[in-house]
Protein backbone atom coordinates (compact mmCIF):
# COMPACT_ATOMS: atom_id res chain seq x y z
CA UNK A 1 0.00 0.00 0.00
CA UNK A 2 1.50 3.31 -1.07
CA UNK A 3 0.38 6.40 0.79
CA UNK A 4 -1.10 9.21 -1.26
CA UNK A 5 0.74 12.43 -2.04
CA UNK A 6 -0.79 15.86 -2.33
CA UNK A 7 0.27 18.85 -4.36
CA UNK A 8 1.79 20.68 -1.37
CA UNK A 9 3.99 17.71 -0.54
CA UNK A 10 5.06 17.50 -4.17
CA UNK A 11 5.87 21.20 -4.31
CA UNK A 12 7.94 20.96 -1.14
CA UNK A 13 10.67 19.62 -3.41
CA UNK A 14 11.30 16.62 -1.19
CA UNK A 15 12.25 13.83 -3.60
CA UNK A 16 10.69 11.20 -1.35
CA UNK A 17 7.26 12.62 -2.14
CA UNK A 18 8.15 12.81 -5.81
CA UNK A 19 9.27 9.18 -5.85
CA UNK A 20 6.05 8.12 -4.20
CA UNK A 21 3.93 10.24 -6.54
CA UNK A 22 5.62 8.72 -9.58
CA UNK A 23 5.02 5.22 -8.30
CA UNK A 24 1.34 6.02 -7.79
CA UNK A 25 1.05 7.35 -11.33
CA UNK A 26 3.18 4.64 -12.88
CA UNK A 27 1.00 1.95 -11.35
CA UNK A 28 -2.15 3.72 -12.35
CA UNK A 29 -3.46 3.97 -8.78
CA UNK A 30 -6.56 6.08 -8.03
CA UNK A 31 -4.39 8.29 -5.77
CA UNK A 32 -2.20 8.95 -8.80
CA UNK A 33 -5.15 10.02 -10.93
CA UNK A 34 -6.37 12.22 -8.13
CA UNK A 35 -2.98 13.90 -7.87
CA UNK A 36 -2.82 14.48 -11.64
CA UNK A 37 -6.20 16.15 -11.59
CA UNK A 38 -5.13 18.48 -8.80
CA UNK A 39 -2.06 19.81 -10.65
CA UNK A 40 -1.88 23.29 -12.10
CA UNK A 41 -0.01 23.87 -15.33
CA UNK A 42 0.32 27.62 -15.36
CA UNK A 43 4.08 27.56 -14.97
CA UNK A 44 5.95 26.31 -18.00
CA UNK A 45 8.76 23.85 -17.30
CA UNK A 46 10.71 23.03 -20.48
CA UNK A 47 10.92 19.39 -21.43
CA UNK A 48 13.89 18.28 -23.48
CA UNK A 49 13.71 14.96 -25.30
CA UNK A 50 16.95 13.22 -26.18
CA UNK A 51 16.58 10.37 -28.60
CA UNK A 52 18.72 8.41 -31.02
CA UNK A 53 19.95 4.91 -31.79
CA UNK A 54 21.17 2.57 -29.03
CA UNK A 55 24.64 3.43 -27.76
CA UNK A 56 24.85 6.83 -29.47
CA UNK A 57 25.75 8.40 -26.14
CA UNK A 58 22.39 9.73 -24.99
CA UNK A 59 22.97 8.95 -21.32
CA UNK A 60 26.49 10.36 -21.50
CA UNK A 61 25.07 13.54 -23.02
CA UNK A 62 22.41 13.77 -20.33
CA UNK A 63 25.16 13.33 -17.76
CA UNK A 64 27.24 16.07 -19.37
CA UNK A 65 24.23 18.38 -19.59
CA UNK A 66 23.43 17.82 -15.93
CA UNK A 67 27.00 18.81 -15.09
CA UNK A 68 26.69 21.98 -17.14
CA UNK A 69 23.28 22.93 -15.77
CA UNK A 70 24.33 22.36 -12.17
CA UNK A 71 27.10 24.90 -12.72
CA UNK A 72 24.42 27.36 -13.82
CA UNK A 73 22.63 26.72 -10.53
CA UNK A 74 19.78 24.78 -12.09
CA UNK A 75 17.67 21.97 -10.68
CA UNK A 76 17.18 19.09 -13.08
CA UNK A 77 14.77 16.19 -13.39
CA UNK A 78 15.66 13.23 -15.62
CA UNK A 79 13.47 10.44 -16.96
CA UNK A 80 15.30 7.57 -18.62
CA UNK A 81 12.88 5.44 -20.61
CA UNK A 82 13.75 1.82 -21.08
CA UNK A 83 11.79 0.52 -24.03
CA UNK A 84 12.88 -3.06 -23.50
CA UNK A 85 11.04 -5.56 -21.41
CA UNK A 86 10.69 -4.86 -17.70
CA UNK A 87 12.93 -7.86 -17.11
CA UNK A 88 15.91 -6.36 -18.89
CA UNK A 89 17.72 -4.11 -16.51
CA UNK A 90 20.79 -3.84 -18.70
CA UNK A 91 20.38 -0.30 -19.90
CA UNK A 92 18.95 0.91 -16.63
CA UNK A 93 22.12 -0.26 -15.00
CA UNK A 94 24.05 1.50 -17.75
CA UNK A 95 22.21 4.75 -17.04
CA UNK A 96 23.02 4.46 -13.39
CA UNK A 97 26.68 4.08 -14.15
CA UNK A 98 26.72 6.82 -16.81
CA UNK A 99 24.94 9.33 -14.61
CA UNK A 100 26.27 8.05 -11.30
CA UNK A 101 28.24 11.16 -10.43
CA UNK A 102 24.97 13.08 -10.12
CA UNK A 103 22.84 10.48 -8.40
CA UNK A 104 23.28 11.91 -4.94
CA UNK A 105 23.15 15.57 -5.89
CA UNK A 106 20.22 17.25 -4.12
CA UNK A 107 19.45 19.27 -7.27
CA UNK A 108 19.16 16.26 -9.54
CA UNK A 109 16.48 13.60 -9.64
CA UNK A 110 16.88 10.66 -12.00
CA UNK A 111 14.16 8.10 -12.56
CA UNK A 112 14.14 5.16 -14.93
CA UNK A 113 10.85 4.00 -16.37
CA UNK A 114 10.06 0.84 -18.25
CA UNK A 115 7.40 1.12 -20.91
CA UNK A 116 6.00 -2.30 -20.09
CA UNK A 117 4.86 -3.39 -23.48
CA UNK A 118 2.54 -0.48 -24.03
CA UNK A 119 1.20 0.14 -27.48
CA UNK A 120 3.90 1.72 -29.58
CA UNK A 121 6.99 2.96 -27.79
CA UNK A 122 6.28 5.53 -25.16
CA UNK A 123 3.41 4.89 -22.84
CA UNK A 124 0.95 7.46 -21.62
CA UNK A 125 2.47 6.93 -18.18
CA UNK A 126 5.49 8.93 -19.30
CA UNK A 127 3.33 11.95 -20.05
CA UNK A 128 1.86 11.62 -16.60
CA UNK A 129 5.18 11.14 -14.85
CA UNK A 130 6.64 14.16 -16.62
CA UNK A 131 3.62 16.22 -15.57
CA UNK A 132 4.15 15.20 -11.96
CA UNK A 133 7.82 16.16 -12.27
CA UNK A 134 6.86 19.65 -13.40
CA UNK A 135 5.71 20.44 -9.88
CA UNK A 136 8.86 19.88 -7.90
CA UNK A 137 10.67 23.04 -8.91
CA UNK A 138 12.91 21.68 -11.68
CA UNK A 139 14.20 24.25 -14.15
CA UNK A 140 14.26 21.67 -16.90
CA UNK A 141 13.25 18.05 -17.38
CA UNK A 142 15.33 15.78 -19.60
CA UNK A 143 13.87 12.62 -21.11
CA UNK A 144 16.08 9.99 -22.69
CA UNK A 145 14.49 7.46 -25.04
CA UNK A 146 16.07 5.03 -27.46
CA UNK A 147 14.98 5.77 -30.99
CA UNK A 148 13.41 2.50 -31.96
CA UNK A 149 10.21 2.16 -33.89
CA UNK A 150 7.58 4.64 -32.91
CA UNK A 151 9.15 6.05 -29.80
CA UNK A 152 11.17 8.77 -31.46
CA UNK A 153 8.08 10.12 -33.12
CA UNK A 154 6.15 9.98 -29.89
CA UNK A 155 8.80 11.81 -27.94
CA UNK A 156 8.35 14.69 -30.32
CA UNK A 157 4.78 14.87 -29.11
CA UNK A 158 5.99 15.03 -25.56
CA UNK A 159 8.98 17.33 -25.55
CA UNK A 160 9.21 21.06 -26.17
CA UNK A 161 12.53 20.47 -27.85
CA UNK A 162 13.75 17.20 -29.33
CA UNK A 163 17.45 16.53 -29.77
CA UNK A 164 18.41 13.61 -32.01
CA UNK A 165 21.79 12.09 -31.21
CA UNK A 166 23.76 10.37 -33.95
CA UNK A 167 27.34 9.17 -34.30
CA UNK A 168 29.85 9.69 -37.13
CA UNK A 169 29.69 6.00 -38.08
CA UNK A 170 26.33 6.78 -39.65
CA UNK A 171 28.63 8.59 -42.15
CA UNK A 172 27.73 7.95 -45.75
CA UNK A 173 24.37 6.56 -44.82
CA UNK A 174 23.09 10.00 -44.04
CA UNK A 175 20.84 9.82 -47.09
CA UNK A 176 19.16 6.78 -45.69
CA UNK A 177 18.52 8.24 -42.28
CA UNK A 178 15.06 7.37 -41.22
CA UNK A 179 12.88 10.21 -42.30
CA UNK A 180 11.15 10.00 -38.94
CA UNK A 181 14.32 11.23 -37.27
CA UNK A 182 14.72 14.03 -39.79
CA UNK A 183 11.26 15.28 -39.10
CA UNK A 184 11.33 15.33 -35.35
CA UNK A 185 14.78 16.82 -34.72
CA UNK A 186 14.87 20.39 -33.46
CA UNK A 187 18.58 19.96 -32.83
CA UNK A 188 20.94 17.35 -34.27
CA UNK A 189 23.87 16.25 -32.16
CA UNK A 190 26.74 14.36 -33.72
CA UNK A 191 28.20 12.80 -30.61
CA UNK A 192 31.47 10.84 -30.42
CA UNK A 193 32.87 13.46 -32.73
CA UNK A 194 36.31 12.50 -31.44
CA UNK A 195 35.94 9.66 -33.91
CA UNK A 196 36.85 9.70 -37.55
CA UNK A 197 34.40 11.03 -40.09
CA UNK A 198 32.61 13.48 -37.79
CA UNK A 199 33.20 16.53 -39.98
CA UNK A 200 32.08 14.82 -43.15
CA UNK A 201 29.02 13.53 -41.41
CA UNK A 202 28.13 16.98 -40.10
CA UNK A 203 28.61 18.40 -43.59
CA UNK A 204 26.40 15.78 -45.23
CA UNK A 205 23.71 16.10 -42.64
CA UNK A 206 23.69 19.89 -42.86
CA UNK A 207 23.47 19.73 -46.64
CA UNK A 208 20.53 17.40 -46.40
CA UNK A 209 18.76 19.67 -43.92
CA UNK A 210 19.32 22.76 -45.97
CA UNK A 211 17.62 21.11 -48.90
CA UNK A 212 14.38 21.27 -46.97
CA UNK A 213 11.90 24.10 -47.10
CA UNK A 214 12.94 27.05 -44.96
CA UNK A 215 11.22 27.50 -41.68
CA UNK A 216 11.47 29.88 -38.77
CA UNK A 217 13.89 27.59 -36.94
CA UNK A 218 17.00 26.35 -38.72
CA UNK A 219 17.87 22.96 -37.25
CA UNK A 220 21.47 23.15 -36.06
CA UNK A 221 23.91 20.25 -36.41
CA UNK A 222 26.28 20.28 -33.45
CA UNK A 223 29.33 18.24 -32.58
CA UNK A 224 29.86 16.87 -29.08
CA UNK A 225 32.14 14.56 -27.18
CA UNK A 226 29.84 13.79 -24.29
CA UNK A 227 32.42 11.88 -22.30
CA UNK A 228 34.77 14.91 -22.31
CA UNK A 229 32.18 17.66 -21.89
CA UNK A 230 33.00 19.05 -25.33
CA UNK A 231 30.29 21.00 -27.15
CA UNK A 232 27.88 20.84 -24.25
CA UNK A 233 27.57 24.58 -23.69
CA UNK A 234 26.72 25.16 -27.36
CA UNK A 235 24.24 22.31 -27.23
CA UNK A 236 22.47 23.86 -24.27
CA UNK A 237 22.42 27.29 -25.93
CA UNK A 238 20.71 25.81 -28.99
CA UNK A 239 18.09 24.12 -26.83
CA UNK A 240 17.48 27.32 -24.91
CA UNK A 241 17.08 29.33 -28.11
CA UNK A 242 14.70 26.80 -29.55
CA UNK A 243 12.64 26.84 -26.39
CA UNK A 244 12.31 30.58 -26.44
CA UNK A 245 11.32 30.67 -30.07
CA UNK A 246 8.80 27.92 -29.56
CA UNK A 247 6.94 29.28 -26.61
CA UNK A 248 4.34 30.14 -29.27
CA UNK A 249 0.77 28.96 -28.99
CA UNK A 250 0.62 26.93 -32.14
CA UNK A 251 3.31 24.47 -31.13
CA UNK A 252 1.86 24.28 -27.63
CA UNK A 253 -1.52 23.39 -29.02
CA UNK A 254 0.02 20.79 -31.28
CA UNK A 255 1.86 19.19 -28.37
CA UNK A 256 -1.21 19.28 -26.19
CA UNK A 257 -3.41 17.60 -28.76
CA UNK A 258 -0.80 14.90 -29.38
CA UNK A 259 -0.59 14.32 -25.65
CA UNK A 260 -4.37 14.23 -25.28
CA UNK A 261 -4.56 11.69 -28.09
CA UNK A 262 -2.03 9.37 -26.42
CA UNK A 263 -3.82 9.65 -23.10
CA UNK A 264 -7.20 8.90 -24.64
CA UNK A 265 -5.70 5.90 -26.41
CA UNK A 266 -4.19 4.56 -23.25
CA UNK A 267 -7.26 5.20 -21.13
CA UNK A 268 -9.57 3.56 -23.64
CA UNK A 269 -7.33 0.51 -23.65
CA UNK A 270 -7.35 0.41 -19.87
CA UNK A 271 -11.08 -0.18 -19.95
CA UNK A 272 -10.47 -3.46 -21.74
CA UNK A 273 -9.80 -6.35 -19.45
CA UNK A 274 -7.98 -9.08 -21.35
CA UNK A 275 -9.27 -11.84 -19.10
CA UNK A 276 -12.81 -10.68 -19.48
CA UNK A 277 -12.31 -10.45 -23.23
CA UNK A 278 -11.23 -14.07 -23.31
CA UNK A 279 -14.18 -15.11 -21.15
CA UNK A 280 -16.57 -13.29 -23.46
CA UNK A 281 -14.97 -14.91 -26.47
CA UNK A 282 -15.07 -18.33 -24.87
CA UNK A 283 -18.82 -18.08 -24.58
CA UNK A 284 -19.23 -17.05 -28.21
CA UNK A 285 -16.42 -18.32 -30.39
CA UNK A 286 -17.59 -21.91 -30.78
CA UNK A 287 -21.06 -20.99 -31.88
CA UNK A 288 -21.81 -21.60 -35.52
CA UNK A 289 -21.72 -18.38 -37.48
CA UNK A 290 -19.49 -16.61 -34.96
CA UNK A 291 -18.14 -13.43 -36.44
CA UNK A 292 -15.36 -11.54 -34.63
CA UNK A 293 -16.29 -8.21 -36.19
CA UNK A 294 -19.90 -8.47 -35.12
CA UNK A 295 -18.74 -9.60 -31.70
CA UNK A 296 -16.52 -6.52 -31.32
CA UNK A 297 -19.26 -4.19 -32.38
CA UNK A 298 -21.81 -5.73 -30.08
CA UNK A 299 -19.59 -6.18 -27.03
CA UNK A 300 -17.13 -3.30 -27.40
CA UNK A 301 -18.90 -0.81 -29.62
CA UNK A 302 -16.04 -0.92 -32.08
N1 LIG B 1 34.53 8.05 -27.87
C1 LIG B 1 33.39 8.46 -27.31
N2 LIG B 1 32.64 7.58 -26.63
C2 LIG B 1 31.49 8.02 -26.09
C3 LIG B 1 31.06 9.36 -26.24
N3 LIG B 1 29.85 9.48 -25.63
C4 LIG B 1 29.56 8.26 -25.12
N4 LIG B 1 30.54 7.39 -25.39
C5 LIG B 1 30.56 5.97 -25.02
O1 LIG B 1 29.58 5.28 -25.75
C6 LIG B 1 29.01 4.22 -24.96
C7 LIG B 1 27.50 4.36 -24.94
O2 LIG B 1 27.17 5.53 -24.26
P1 LIG B 1 25.74 5.77 -23.58
O3 LIG B 1 25.77 7.15 -23.05
O4 LIG B 1 25.40 4.68 -22.66
O5 LIG B 1 24.82 5.66 -24.85
P2 LIG B 1 23.23 5.60 -24.91
O6 LIG B 1 22.83 6.20 -26.20
O7 LIG B 1 22.66 6.19 -23.68
O8 LIG B 1 22.98 4.05 -24.92
P3 LIG B 1 21.57 3.28 -24.68
O9 LIG B 1 20.82 4.01 -23.60
O10 LIG B 1 21.97 1.91 -24.28
O11 LIG B 1 20.86 3.32 -26.00
C8 LIG B 1 29.65 4.31 -23.60
O12 LIG B 1 30.68 3.37 -23.53
C9 LIG B 1 30.20 5.73 -23.56
O13 LIG B 1 31.32 5.85 -22.72
C10 LIG B 1 31.89 10.28 -26.98
O14 LIG B 1 31.58 11.45 -27.17
N5 LIG B 1 33.04 9.75 -27.49
MG1 LIG C 1 21.26 5.37 -22.27
Key traits:
302 residues, alpha/beta, Rossmann fold, 3 domains, seven-stranded parallel beta sheet, 13 helices, 7 strands, binds guanosine-5'-triphosphate, binds magnesium ion
Task: Indicate the overall shape.
Answer: globular
Q: Characterize the largest beta sheet: strand count, sense, and whether it forms a barrel.
A: 7 strands, parallel
Number of helical runs? 13
Rounded Rg: 21 Å
Content-based structural category: alpha/beta
Q: Write down the domain tally.
A: 3
- Bound ligand species: guanosine-5'-triphosphate, magnesium ion
Task: Please write out the topology.
Elements lengths: L6 H5 L3 H12 L3 H9 L8 E6 L5 H14 L4 E7 L7 H9 L9 E7 L9 H10 L6 E7 L4 H6 L4 E6 L12 H6 L2 E4 L7 H13 L10 E3 L8 H14 L3 H22 L3 H12 L6 H9 L2
Parallel strand pairs: 1-4, 1-5, 2-3, 2-4, 5-6, 6-7
The structure holds guanosine-5'-triphosphate and magnesium ion.
Guanosine-5'-triphosphate binds next to helix 4 and helix 5.
Description:
- The protein has three domains: 1-39, no CATH class; 41-266, Rossmann fold (3-Layer(aba) Sandwich); 274-300, no CATH class.
- Helices cover 47% and strands 13% of the residues.
- The protein has 13 helices and seven strands.
- It has helices spanning 7-11, 15-26, 30-38, 58-71, 90-98, 124-133, 151-156, 179-184, 198-210, 232-245, 249-270, 274-285, 292-300; strands spanning 47-52, 76-82, 108-114, 140-146, 161-166, 187-190, 221-223.
- Strand 5, helix 8 (179-184) and strand 6 form a beta-alpha-beta unit.
- Helix 2 packs antiparallel against helix 6.
- The longest helix has 22 residues, at 249-270.
- Guanosine-5'-triphosphate binds at residues 54-60, 91, 94, 98, 146, 191-192, 194-195, 225-227.
Amino acid sequence: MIRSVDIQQLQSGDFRFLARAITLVENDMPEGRHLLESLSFDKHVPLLGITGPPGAGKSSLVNALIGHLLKEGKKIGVIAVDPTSPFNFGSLLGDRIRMSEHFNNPNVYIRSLATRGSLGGLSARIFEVSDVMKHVGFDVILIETVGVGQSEVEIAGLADTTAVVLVPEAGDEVQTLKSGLMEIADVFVVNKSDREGADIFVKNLSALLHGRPQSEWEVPVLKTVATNQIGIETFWKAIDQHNQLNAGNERKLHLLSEKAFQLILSNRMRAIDRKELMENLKAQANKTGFNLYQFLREMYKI
